[in-house]
Design brief:
Structural class: alpha+beta
Shape: elongated
Number of helices: 5
Oligomer: single chain
Number of strands: 15
Radius of gyration: 24 Å
């Protein structure tokens, strides 16, 4: 009798385990809000299974009802997503780590193309000879294809008829105004990033008009 009971329990346990793994999660992994990432590793906590995103950033993976999926790719911050038991589709956006080396990793490992990154982020750094040709920080920004006029930096043009069209400006991690930029000389700048389109979404609603990110040599 005990043998039959143990056999039944074993069968129920195996059946329950198989059932728990039968759910398939589909999803897409992007960066900068809209650019699909290729070859991102997705690790399933309970099974140790690893799958990769395809050329369109899509993936499919079997997971338990309340499993955890870890997403990781060179040049990007890793993130872990806990499934809620009902999700059948996941949209995950990985943040690109700051720095030229991380961009090289992202491109070199084939996760994203240089062309796609460039279309979302225009960059100038201290190795670019153009810095030395300007005495005015606004002229440097204009050289990057951005309109600077009437006390505003406009990355996306006149999108709003009532509100401001000015881009968000961040210097060494601190949000600053147009007048503060007048105090910065190009010779003291390490890099400038012009972030447009979906890429600015990482700054929330404040980045709706695009973002100018400036890093100085001393970081202060």
């Amino acid at each position: 009798m005990k043998k039959i009971l143990y056999t039944c329990l074993f069968v129920l346990f195996i059946s329950g385990s198989i059932y728990a793994q039968e759910r398939v999660i589909h999803g897409i992994v992007t960066t900068l809000d809209s650019i699909p990432l290729i070859g991102v590793e997705i690790d399933v906590r309970t099974t140790g299974q690893t799958v990769l995103t395809d050329s369109l950033g899509n993936f499919s993976v079997a997971a338990d009802m309340k499993d955890k999926l870890k997403f990781k790719a060179n040049g990007f911050y890793s993130t872990t997503v806990k499934l809620d038991g009902k999700a059948k589709f996941l949209a995950v956006n990985l943040k690109l780590k700051p720095g030229d080396k991380q961009r090289e990793y992202a491109v070199g490992y084939g996760h994203v193309s240089e062309e796609e990154l460039t279309s979302a982020i225009t960059n100038l750094n201290k190795n670019d000879a153009r810095f030395a040709r300007f005495n005015d920080i606004f002229d440097v920004i204009r050289s990057m294809g951005v309109d600077v006029s009437n006390g505003e930096i406009r990355i996306r043009g006149d999108k709003s008829f009532q509100g401001s069209n000015a881009a968000l400006v961040v210097v060494d991690g601190v949000i600053v105004d147009y007048d503060f930029l007048k105090t910065i000389k190009p010779i003291y700048v390490k890099s400038i990033d012009i972030i447009r389109d979906g890429a600015s979404a990482v700054y929330g609603s404040r980045g709706a008009n695009g973002v100018v990110v400036i890093k100085t040599l001393d970081g202060k």
